[in-house]
Amino acid sequence: MKELQRAISQQQCIKIIYLGKDGQMSQRTLRPLAIVGDRLKAYCLTRKAPRIFAIENILASEQLVNNHAV
Question: Is the pTM higher than 0.85?
Answer without folding.
Answer: yes
